[in-house]
Amino acid sequence: MNALDDNAGSPPTTAGRAKWPVILAFILILAGALGFALTRDGRPSGTETGEVNAAAAGSLAGLEARVDANPEDVTGWEQLGQQRYDTADYGGAVQAYRRATVLAPAVAAYWSALGDSLVMAAPRGGPPVPDDAVAAFRRAIAIDAGDPRARYFLAARKDQDGDHEGAIADWLALLADTPPASPLEQDLRYTIERVGAREGIAVASRIAAVRQPGVSPAN
Question: Are residues 130 and 120 in contact, defined by beta-carbon separation less than 8 angstroms?
């Protein structure tokens, strides 16, 4: 379950290093869309607005006091992780979500949120989807094979490792499970198109062939 790719520890090639900033740009685009789509109370995730940041910062102290008073409060840790993520304290989000996974190891969303935070906390000179994030996403998938955040980032890891066709196939499968007009849909299409263009892989007809929930085939 925690096993990583056989080549995860191998040094990157020059070509691979050159592509990492491009991959990271796609990851940041989708991370924002995923955060908005998956947040449980309707607030945008990430740092989209100053109002969101101010509200998150205002509640951090209360959440920190809450988990200090009750370290077994898994909901408190999850909310603290979300608030820290909202204020771009990704290292702090990692700590909070890691505690949530200890308290509730069977909740896929906690593992995928941990993986997302590990991606965002990773050094920008290193690989966009690091090994510890991969392990967290694989734990999420083992619990819930449909977890969209874990599915997206594991596909991004395939792209990072040079399996561009495999990444595109996985993103297309995720698109097929994504409702039209959701915050994730257009950014996911954009990522597939850009990776296809970058790697010389034809994707337009494959995207057009995707049947999303609620979309009936043309007569």
Answer: no
Assigned token pair, 195: 């990776």
Closest CA to 91 of 123, 57, 135, 45: 123
Sign of the C-alpha dihedral computed for residues 71, 116, 54 and 39 taken in this order? negative
Residue 167's domain comprises 14-209
Using an 8 Å Cβ cutoff, are 120 and 162 in contact? no
Q: Which helix (H) or strand (E) holds 189?
A: helix 185-199
Is 190 inside a domain boundary? yes
> Taking the model in full, what pTM does it have?
0.76
* CATH label of the domain that carries residue 78: 1.25.40.10
**Residue 216, in any domain of the structure:** no
Question: Does 217 reside within a domain?
Answer: no
* Domains contained in the chain, number: 1
Cβ 171 vs Cβ 152: under 8 Å: yes
Tokens representing residue 58 in the block: 């205002």
Q: What is the block-wise mean pLDDT of the chain (219 residues), using blocks of 10 residues?
A: 32 44 58 46 38 58 93 95 92 97 97 94 87 97 95 92 95 94 85 91 96 67
Cα torsion at 135, 130, 100, 79 (round to 10°)? Answer: -140
